[in-house]
C-alpha cells in the first residue's frame, strides 16, 4: 500500500479527527515533548510582540504548547484538514490565537504571510509530497534571524531505533487504528516514518533549504532515537540574508 498523500491523507485525518486527541494521549510524554520543542525556539520576553506560525497544527496540541511557552506571542495555526481544525477551534483559546485552513503548500494563497519570528512544525514534514518546497516557503516567511523548530519522527539511524518503532506500531498503533476504524491512517503513520529521512538526513535537508545553525536534539523517553527536535535559523539581514 503506497503512502497517503495530499487529498487522500487529508481525508484520512478528517475521518480520524474525532478520536485523534484520545489516541495521542496514550503516548507517554506526547504533550510534554511538544512543549519542549516549543521552548527550544527560545523567544525572549515570553514572545511579547512576536508572531509565531504553527504549521500543521492538527487539533491544536502544538498550538497549546506554543501558547504556554510564549504567552505574549500572536500564534497562527494552519492545517489542511477541516476535521482537525474543527477540533482545534472548539477549544478555549486567547484572542491572540487564530486558525487558518490551508495546505502547507498553499500558504500565500490562503493569505498566510510573513514575517514570522518563529515557526513550529510538528509531525508534518514526513507527510508532505515535497518537503523541500515547503521548507523554502517557511524560510521565506521567517523574519531575518527567525527560528524554525521541526518536531518530527525521524529515526536516528541505528537498527535498534527501527526495531523499537516497528514493535510499537505492531503492538499499539495498528491495533488502536483498527479498533477505531482508522487503520489506513495509522498504517500510514508507521510507514511514513520508516520511509522518511533519518535524523541526520533531515538536518542536511534543512541546510540545503537555507537554514543556518542547524541542530538535531533528541527527545526523552521511549522515543529517544525516534523523535527529534530540529532547529534552524534564517540568517540575519546584515549577514547576507537568505539564500
UniProtKB/TrEMBL annotation:
<keyword id="KW-0808">Transferase</keyword>
<dbReference type="GO" id="GO:0008168">
    <property type="term" value="F:methyltransferase activity"/>
</dbReference>
<dbReference type="GO" id="GO:0032259">
    <property type="term" value="P:methylation"/>
</dbReference>
<dbReference type="InterPro" id="IPR029063">
    <property type="entry name" value="SAM-dependent_MTases_sf"/>
</dbReference>
<protein>
    <submittedName>
        <fullName>Class I SAM-dependent methyltransferase</fullName>
        <ecNumber>2.1.1.-</ecNumber>
    </submittedName>
</protein>
<dbReference type="Pfam" id="PF01209">
    <property type="entry name" value="Ubie_methyltran"/>
</dbReference>
<keyword id="KW-0489">Methyltransferase</keyword>
